[in-house]
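>> received
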Amino acid sequence: MRGQKKLARSEASPAMLVGLTAMIAVASAVAGLYTLPGTRIPLLNPVPAVCLAALLIYGLRAWPAVLVGSVVWSALMLAPDYILAAAYSLGITLASAVAAWGVFRFWRLDLSRNAVHNLMVVYLFGAVAFAAVMLLLVAPVITATRHAAPAEALLLTLWLLPYIVLGIAAFLPAIMLMVLKLPPEPAGRSQSQRFVSLGRRGWTLGCLLLALIHFWLMATGRPEFAISLRYLLLLMIIIAALRFGYRFNAVAAMIVVAYLVLSESWWLERLAPHFELPAMIDLNLVCILALLAAQLIAMYRLESATASVDIRRHASHDATTGLLKREAFRSQLVEAAAGGTGDARQHVCLHIDIDRFSVVNDKSGIDAGDLMLREIADLIAGDLPVTATAARHDGDDFMVLLRNCGEDEASRVATNIRRRIAALRSIWHGSESAVTASIGIAPFTGGQSDADVILLTAHTAMSLVQNSGGDGLRVMRVDDDAVAERKRAAALVGEIRAAIEANRFQIYCQELQPLQRVDNGLVSFEVLSRLTDQQGRPLPPVEVFPLAEKFELMREVDRVVVTNTVSWLTRHPECIARTHACCINLSGASIDVDNIGFYRSLLDTFDLPPEKLCFEVTETSAVTHFRAAVEFMGALKATGCSFALDDFGAGMSSFEYFRELPVDKIKIDGAFIRGLERGSKNYAIVQAVVSIARAFSLQTVAEFVENDEIRELLRDLGVTYAQGHVVAKPEPIEEFFRKRMSI
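>> returned
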């Protein structure tokens, strides 16, 4: 994430880190009372680790707290030499800042998501950088305060360096494991867990028993046995790392190490004949090595848990924005909408659509669009309450679930999101882009709502905002009239999908009457399809086909209608013999180069002469997909089929199309046929269309012919065919041919 200066943004508990710091301060005070001066600094290696952890987790802005903590520790451990204490506390602060800066400068990491070996490199890098700064700062101070000669001061700081490195490398992972929000503990039992069949209670009781024996041996003057027993306690650290989760391991390991160091420091004078200063130093070294080994084991177990979480995250989260995917969001919305028994809590669903986002992709490219989507996702997620859920719904659409939220609070959140998105500017290779957002707000009550209705309500509200210009928000409840209309449309779309799958199509035919000649007793007709629901009731065509086109179902509808028609005619060769032209409508979705193969294959499969088929394409569709229409028509005309340009005059007509589009008929739009009378504007338009058609050797068909007077006028104008209720009403194909075969 751009500008990230923390390993885990605001995912750490300050109380945990403060409590850990306080515990180390108390331990420092106790150790300072009962430890020889030469052993004080190596004992409390958690202090540099806590300081570095604070800067890594909360960012470099946490340095004042780090300074205060290091001053307290130095005053406790190095009193009464406050000059050295001040220098040492300043050294810890600067060393922590330098080490954290180096991590931020060279690594962009999140502890909960990166491989263990990368994290250990970061820890060691921080430890070495910390030790190097301390070496440069503390050695001159020791010399300046006359605690030692320059050579001795250098040797002293070199002697401290491995303790600082090992201390940070061992304690820093433990602190991170305890403080950060990390993936769940690994499920199941590993081979090591099966090998060490020890529960948490048994492990705790075992440690307490060993500690009591260890303490009793030291108290009774038997330090040689106590010193040996401490290695069993260190072994318990390794057992905890193998057997239990990484958080339990981190806490247990630090408690065991703290006990060993402090208890043996307490009895140092009594141990003096048997336990000299080098042995005390060795104790610290062994404890740190044991702790480091335990943390390495815990970190590798964390990696296995992280890998499992990443797999689940990849399945449920969008790769571009990091937000939830649509399916995962819907499952949470279903849960909130269902509620529980007696649950009447208020929730709100937001549907956020980015206005004119395609301009960003067109002007700056897909990469710039993805970058802006990530920025928008950060703005949305960063503005939400802790209990809210955000998701990328589709493309540039986002969804938000606000739990336990009232309408006023939701409007405030939505307004803030809209303003922040409107203020967003993306500069990509010198090209600046800006966007706005349309937000639909759908309040609902748990236990009384349906997830699909909620989504539809939020989408309807967002659409109304967009239709009025965008860059706004609108509240809509699930019982609004507009939502009811959308629900009805959604139910009808479901019926259309089911009708396509079950092939519930009825084929109707409406005759085209020749006005200038008789087609040798053959009939021409247009195929009009009707869909039925599961009960066999017809669905209203005036609603069905616009919805099918809106929801991109017309390609499947066209294929079913054409297949059913050709199949029926093939099964009735006597009807084929009486057919002059079978006209079938094709939508704009079917005028596609990729669709040519389907219709060629259909003609090869069924024994129907291609010259009997005439495909009708609307003028608007042909113009919208002009190049594809030219190629599509040309390919099917090569097989023998013909084409008609439907609804001519309803769109932006241009005579240029006649030179390019390989059509055989022009169907004059019904708007020019209704109310046709001699001398009217419509009469002049129809007359001009017929003249142009003749010039291009095209036939003409007049739609919506409703009376004999209009039919005679059309005959006088030279129109080739008439179609309308005065000629014949649409009727099922079986009835259509039964009547005409008997003539």
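>> The first strand starts at residue 346 and ends at 355.
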